[in-house]
Amino acid sequence: MEKMKAWAKKLKQQILVLYLAYKDDRVPWYAKIFTACVVAYALSPVDLIPDFIPVLGYLDDVILVPLGIMLALKMIPDEVIAECELKAEEMMKKDKPKNWVAGTVVILIWVAVLLWVILNFPFGMGFAGVV
Predict the structure, then answer these.
(1) Average pLDDT of the chain?
(2) From 50, 57, 66, 104, which residue has the greatest number of CB atoms within 10 Å?
(3) Under a CB-based contact definition with an 8 Å cutoff, are residues 57 and 51 in contact?
(4) ∠ CA 81-42-62 to the nearest 5 degrees?
């Protein structure tokens, strides 16, 4: 259990490092875009795959977010990461920022998918219309 807590704390710190790094002028534009997407998704209050969906719900938290963080960290210059790690330690003492824009985008995607399903499948006919 202690290993999981340490892993989660390290993950939070890496997200904060990326949050600070994507604002730095020394980071290449392509790394900024990728890093901003990773940070936005990681800090979003809404997941693309909701956690209540068995297995898949936690897939993003356990695989996609750490993979995105790892790739983003490889794109950022080492000196920027070192500076941002120091700043992130200070931020760890406070609440992490929320990205409500990313959360809104995820909610809009789910609404669009739901509307598409409702408009394209005849639920009133039951399964008789599908066969």
Answers:
(1) 79
(2) 66
(3) yes
(4) 100
pLDDT score at 98: 59
Cα distance between residue 26 and residue 20, in whole Å: 12
Burial of 13: CB neighbours in 10 Å, binned 0-12, 13-18, 19+: middle
Cβ distance 109 to 48 under 8 Å?
Answer: yes
Within 10 Å of residue 66's Cβ, how many Cβ atoms? 16
- Do 61 and 51 touch, CB atoms closer than 8 A? yes
Q: Are 62 and 102 in contact (CB under 8 A)?
A: no
Alpha-carbon distance 124 to 120, whole Å?
12
**What is the tens place of the pLDDT at every residue in 1-53?**
777 777 777 887 888 889 889 888 999 999 999 998 888 877 776 676 777 77
Give the HSE-up count for residue 55: Cα atoms under 13 Å, Cβ half-sphere.
0
Instruction: Record the pTM.
Output: 0.61
What gap in Å lies between CA 73 and CA 82, rounded to an integer?
A: 11
